[in-house]
Give the backbone structure.
Amino acid sequence: MPTIMSPVDAIAELFASAGAADYLGEPVTVATHLLQSGALAEEAGAPPSLVAAALLHDVGHLRGADARADGIELSGRELMAGTDNNHGERGAQWLASLRFPASVTEPVRLHVAAKRYLCAAEPAYFGQLSEASVYTLAVQGGPMSDAEAREFEREPHAAAAIAVRRWDDQAKDPSAATPGFPHFRALLGGLL
């Protein structure tokens, strides 16, 4: 008989498998990056849904084959090769299918837009980006225009996406003490 995997177990499996890969030109693995993001959100006193969004913001890089992409294997490799893989949108859709609330999925969906917004709204922000983030910014459309920035500001989850983005930028430290995935299991389970 096939075993039915819980949503939290499915996420744990992604962290343990695809998450063990290098994180797109950064000095940490994808899983370490995500765990650091979640830990930073938790340290900042963010509500559980925002901690989960920080923890899961790049899950779209881990999903592998995607039926909406004609079975093409999608990961962060396409992004680093110059093709936007829409990982925020893909990750948000997958998390919504697991029944996570919009307070988790929308910051995930918008975290790339938040990078583009911050580059337009805060001139010093661009200088804080890692080399890999500067490259992916160009692939993802570059800084927003004034019109795009005003539209982003009207998004109900814009502030949450900006918070996730800032934790994302900080979560690339190979020497940081990082909790393991089990640390976040109860938090994720409580949101489903």
About this structure: The CA atoms of residues 16 and 97 lie 21 Å apart. DSSP finds ten helices and two strands in the chain. The longest strand covers residues 64-65. The beta strands are 64-65, 73-74.
